[in-house]
Specification:
Oligomer: single chain
Helix content: 55-70%
Order of helices and strands: EHHEEHHH
Number of domains: 2
Shape: rod-shaped
Distance between the termini: 153 Å
Strand content: 5-15%
Structural class: mainly alpha
Length: about 200
C-alpha cells in the first residue's frame, strides 16, 4: 500500500504559525531544524515544510540541528521520537528531487531544441536570400553585358552610317563639279567649244 503524502505548509504559513520571519524559516530549513520539501511548480519549484515537523518545532521551542548518525537522517525514528528519518523516506524525497531536476533538464533540452530549430530556419532563410542575391547579381551582370553588346552594335552602325553619308556627300560633290563644268562648257560660244585647246 502506498504511503500517504505528508501534509505540508508553505513558508509563509510556517512563519505565521511559529511567529517568525520567512527568512528565519528558510534558514532553519537550510540548517536542518525544519525539514523542507521541494514542490514542483510551473517554471520551477517552491519549498514547503512538513506540518508534523512544524508541530514538533513548536513543542521543542527551537528544534534540533541534525548532527548525523549511521543510517539515519532528520525525520522520524523507529522509537517514535521525531529525531530521525529512514533512508527509505530520504530516498523517496531524493526521487522527487530527481524528477524535478529531470523535468527541468527536459525543459532546457526542449528549449535548446527549439532554439536550434529556429537557428536552422534562420540559417536556411539567409542561405536562400544569399542565393537569390547571387542569382540577381548574375542577371544584372548578364543584362549589363547585353547592354554593352547592343551599345557596341549601335556604335558600329553609327560608324557605318557616317562612312556611307561621307561617301554620298563626296559622290554628290563630284556630280556637282561635273555638272558645273558641263554647264560652263555649254555656255561657251560654239566656235570656242569647236576650237578649244
Amino acid at each position: 500500500m502506498k504511503e500517504e503524502e505528508r501534509e505540508t505548509l508553505s513558508i509563509k504559513e510556517t512563519a505565521e504559525l511559529l511567529n517568525l520571519s520567512e527568512k528565519t524559516i528558510r534558514k532553519h530549513i537550510r540548517d536542518g531544524r525544519l525539514l523542507g520539501v521541494r514542490v514542483p511548480m510551473p517554471g520551477g519549484f517552491r519549498y514547503e515544510v512538513l506540518k508534523d515537523r512544524v508541530e514538533e518545532f513548536q513543542g521543542s521551542g527551537r528544534g534540533d540541528v541534525w548532527k548525523g548518525s549511521p543510517g539515519k537522517v532528520p525525520g522520524v525514528s523507529s522509537r517514535g521520537r521525531d529525531e530521525t528519518i529512514s533512508y527509505k523516506e530520504l530516498y523517496e524525497k531524493l526521487e522527487v528531487k530527481n524528477e524535478i531536476l529531470e523535468a527541468e533538464l527536459r525543459n532546457k533540452i526542449e528549449f535548446i531544441g527549439a532554439l536550434q530549430e529556429r537557428l536552422n530556419n534562420e540559417r536556411k532563410l539567409l542561405t536562400d536570400r544569399a542565393q537569390s542575391l547571387i542569382e540577381k547579381e548574375a542577371q544584372v551582370i548578364e543584362y549589363k553585358a547585353g547592354i554593352q553588346e547592343r551599345e557596341s552594335k549601335i556604335r558600329e552602325i553609327e560608324d557605318t552610317a557616317r562612312a556611307e553619308v561621307e561617301q554620298i556627300r563626296q559622290e554628290f560633290k563630284q556630280e556637282q563639279d561635273i555638272r558645273a563644268k558641263m554647264e560652263a562648257e555649254l555656255k561657251k560660244p560654239w566656235w570656242k567649244r569647236l576650237f578649244r585647246k
